[in-house]
Structures are given as structure tokens and as C-alpha cells.
Amino acid sequence: MIEEILKNFRDFIRKKGLKYTSEREEILEEILSIDGHFDVEELYQRLKQKNKKISKPSIYRSIPLFIEAGYIQEVYRQDGHSHYEVTINKAPHLHFLCLRCGKVEEIIDPELEHLIRTKEAEKGFKLLTHHLESFGICETCQKAETTTLDMVEKGKVVEVLDLPADVMCKKLIAMGLRKGELLKVLQVCGRTMLVEIGNSRIVINKELASKIPVKIVRKEKVAENLPCELIDGEEAQQDPCPLKK
């Protein structure tokens, strides 16, 4: 199999009028031995470990030729550089890329392949490579971003995921605290928190905040720093939603 691929690559190089080199052959052989995605740095290190005296510039110059010949394709870019995979005998598939941790999941589904092959035939198109990407947040990162309001640090902006029945009260609803709303933690003082919802500010006790699940969205700067005595006094004076005993 590999010998046939190398022979076809030699023919491809000659037809392009380029000089065939043993370096390119060694790079291609190493690529064909990789199971999964790779980048130039990883490829370079693999060759180096095998005492192959091949420079990174040589690899960079060879990559476009391998892509043009249909042996590899760029599947995604991460941290400013490209990642590739071998396309020979590989079914069309989808990549799920996590924008938080960089994790890449490969989705191979017979229905997806059938759809692509059907459309290929309908359009009279000869499919050489395939490149399908979906960007989002993986399950692990989603769980890591989920907490309760009482655990959120000053300056964090969060999305309210749910409001339990005993948290639902007219005052909080009137001030904009509802499922799906964004709120910003302005200050944490002992047993109370000062949060901002739109143009309103609410003092919430931590016992109540511990019942509100939230998802951290981002972090922002907090311009001012109010005295904790003032915040505690405000909360004590008018508890926005007393807990049921």
C-alpha cells in the first residue's frame, strides 16, 4: 500500500516538473504512519527522534504538495498553526472543536458519509478532500463553568441557569433576576453580594445565592469598591427575597 502511494507521489512530482527528493519521501512515509491529527512541530519531532536530518522549512515546503496530491488535508487551526490528517481511505467526517480547552472530537457517521456521497453524485463532483468543522464548548468545560452564585468571584459575569421556586419573588423578578439573564458580581462582603443586572443593583445574601445555579461567561473590571458595611446594612434593611423557614 505504502509503496504504491510513494510511486504515485513520484509520478505526481515529475508531472509537476519538480525534482523528486528522498526528503519528501521520508516526510510522506512518516505522515502515513501517524494515526490521528498532527502539526508540523509534531511531525518534525517524530522525524528527529528517528535521526532524520530534515528541517522544518523542508516540511513546510512539502505540506502543500501532499495536500495537492490528495494525501492529507488541513482540518483545523489552533494556537496559530495548522493541524492535518491523512485523507487516504478515510470516510467523510465531522470535527467538534472546543473553543475553551482545544479538544477535538472526530465524528464518523454512516449517515453523514451517505449524504456527502449522494450530493457528490448529484452534482457530478469528484470529491478529493472533506473539511467539516463545528465549534463550541465541550461537556467537560461546560461543567467546569457551572457553579452557584455564592461561589462567583468579584468581576465575573454569569448567566442565570435556573431560579428555584423559593428564589422566585416579585422584587427580584421586578429587578430583572430571571433565567437566562446576565448579571455581574460587583462585590462580595461576608454573607452578602452586590450584583448588577442591567442598570439595577441588588444586594443578595449568600444563602439565597447558593440556590441560584449560574454559568460563568466572562470576567470584567469593577471600577468602584463600596464599603462592606454599607452593603451589609442595605441587605439587612431590605432582604430582596426572604428564605422560607
Concise overview:
By secondary structure, the chain is an alpha+beta fold. About 35% of the residues lie in helices and about 25% in strands. The chain folds into three domains: about 1-90, Winged helix-like DNA-binding domain superfamily/Winged helix DNA-binding domain (Arc Repressor Mutant, subunit A), CATH 1.10.10; about 90-135, Dna Ligase, domain 1; about 145-235, Ferrous iron transport protein A (FeoA) (SH3 type barrels, Roll), CATH 2.30.30.90.
Can you tag this structure with a few keywords?
3 domains; SH3 type barrels; 11 strands; Dna Ligase, domain 1; Arc Repressor Mutant, subunit A; 245 residues
Proportion of residues in β-strands:
25-35%
CATH architecture of the largest domain: Roll
For CATH, the homologous superfamily of the largest domain is named as: Ferrous iron transport protein A (FeoA)
Uncertain runs: none
Helix content: 25-40%
Radius of gyration: 28 Å
CATH class category label of the largest domain: Mainly Beta
The chain-level structural class is alpha+beta
Oligomer: single chain
Query: Could you name the CATH topology of the largest domain?
Result: SH3 type barrels
Please report the total strand number as a whole number. 11
The helix count comes to: 9
- Mean pLDDT, rounded to whole units? 81
Order of helices and strands: HHHHEEEEHEHEEHEEEHEH
End-to-end C-alpha gap: 75 Å
Shape descriptor: elongated
Number of domains: 3
Neighbour order of strands in the largest sheet: 6-11-7-8-9-10
Biggest pleated-sheet summary: 6 strands, antiparallel
